Amino acid sequence: MIMGILNVTPDSFSDGGRFNGAAEALEQCRKMIEQGVDIIDIGGESTRPGADPVSAEEQIRRVVPIIDAIRLQLNETIPISIDTTLHRVAAAALDAGATLINDISAGLDDELIFDVAVQKQVPLILMHRQGTPKNMQESPSYVNVVREVLDGLMQRVEVAISRGLDKRQLLIDPGIGFGKRKQDNIDLLAHLDQFVATGYPVLLGTSRKRFMGSICDVNNPEELVTATAVTTALGVMNGVKCFRVHDVKENKQALDVAWAIYQSRHI
């Protein structure tokens, strides 16, 4: 599945300010739907390195009108993910028509988010993050990044289940770029099969990430569409189920071709 990113923020790393007006956000949603997006992921808080936190009230002010408008004007049924770490934002978004929660803190910022997922009976994505967006890239450190990220995610899965979530409602995300060095990100991508082997559906979010720019000698994130599509194809071949991207058309093409090859290999 392709999860299309809609940042209704003034300061996201790649598209900040482009879609924080209702008309612009709806047009972007319309474009993504036409290109075959499976899920729309809406966030009202930038999580770029160095970003300051945004209050629940402000996130709700940003995201709820957009969710309302999508449901009333565009599509009544397309899955909508709310990208937040705060339970109040998640609850308000779900009441407005969102259908799943994408929590980059895996419940560490606000464990009441587990209770919201249970009460609303919606899927929850748990992502690994070392530190917070404000400080996560200052000095990330691992001895064995694959093992440590896997262990960290499984610990959060256990907490989620202990709070009443059905394991079938959980997805995991290794958190590419969130408190990781360049080589950490590469190592995680090289071992995606270990995350898939947990049995939990894996979401991969590499879209336009800075570590690929350092590999390709590119400074403008919007020039990393091809690089992102390469990681999407790699993810498909390793069993990843969902891809969070800015560029739906290009990544859907990569996914479709890789999926055809994957299916042939597994006949």
Which key phrases capture this entry?
267 residues, alpha/beta, 8-stranded parallel beta sheet, 8 strands
What is the distance, rounded to the nearest whole angstrom, between the alpha carbons of the first and last residues? Answer: 21 Å
Number of alpha- plus pi-helical segments: 10
Structural class: alpha/beta
Radius of gyration: 17 Å
Element pattern in H and E: EHEHEHEHEHEHHEHHEH
* Number of beta-strand segments: 8
Shape call: globular
- Main sheet: strands, sense, barrel: 8 strands, parallel
What percent of the residues sit in helical stretches (DSSP H or I)?
Answer: 40-55%
Low-confidence stretches: none
The neighbouring-strand order within the major sheet is 6-5-4-3-2-1-8-7
How much of the sequence is in beta strands? 5-15%
Mean pLDDT: 93
